[in-house]
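Lecture 7 notes: from sequence to structure.

We start with a single chain of 312 residues. Read the sequence below before looking at the structure.
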Amino acid sequence: MENDKRSEDPNKRILSNEDLINPLTVLLFLALLSFFSLLIVNGIIFLLEYHQGLTIAEAMKQLEQDQSAGLRNYIRIALFTNHVFVFIFPALITAWFIFKREWTDFLKLNFKPLPVQAMNSLLGACMLIMAFPIAQLALWLNQQLPLPEWAKSIESNANAMLQNLLRVESPYELVLNIVVVAMIPAIGEELLFRGILQRNFENLFKNPHTAIWLAAVIFSAFHFQFEGFLPRVLLCAMLGYFYYFSGSLWVPVIAHFFYNGFQILAIYFYTNNISSFDIDHIDHLPLGLIIFSFIFVSATGFYFIRFNTKNE
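Now the structure, written as tokens:
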């Protein structure tokens, strides 16, 4: 009888695998697996380059003059392979190997009730898209910082490659861009930076805000594009808060996908003037638009938190 009473004590609970695993162990395993994944993806890219008779670097440079769909698809295949093995593969294998049957619970991949999930995803996507003027203000502030020429060169080359890649000649290519540039990065980057890193930082530091901003800083630094460092940190922190308050990884994944997809569609419908369209350099945004963006994101964020607190 005494044992039965102890088992019914609401303050006693069975420790889950997450409670027993040291977060540093998870991070170490992830680092080793990521190194192994880099070796695999480099081998695949080497075989791809050998078969094509053209390196990826040469293809990106050639893309500036040769606007052929075949060349763009070659780079899309390389990007797809890179995202799968650098982001998706290490995140999923780490979660499954460390947490076994609880891997979906650790990543928070379980679906919430459909109305809650749909409302969270809609609010998250709207906030991220409407935060674009704030991100542009952060970009302008970032550009006021002195940067070495090599950092500016990396940013310029990345923007040029992306602009050339997003040129499309058919709806088929538009679909490929949505999959390769919007969907796969949204899934992979959220799995790794929110699902693994942010969750582990939260367990390690016992502070969700530290975990969110640290994961956002690492995410931004990982891109090696320093002219856009601040806006990327800001937007990724928003994704981190979506994850934390909603309790579902699908919310930042969907919001991230819509944000990427929104830019792809904007460029697609801006095709006639794409030579003058620069994703990361949109100047002279009206102050009123920035203020409206800040008010909208703040008010919607407040409602987002209350909505999820109510449906906890």
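The radius of gyration is 21 Å. Keep this in mind for problem set 3.
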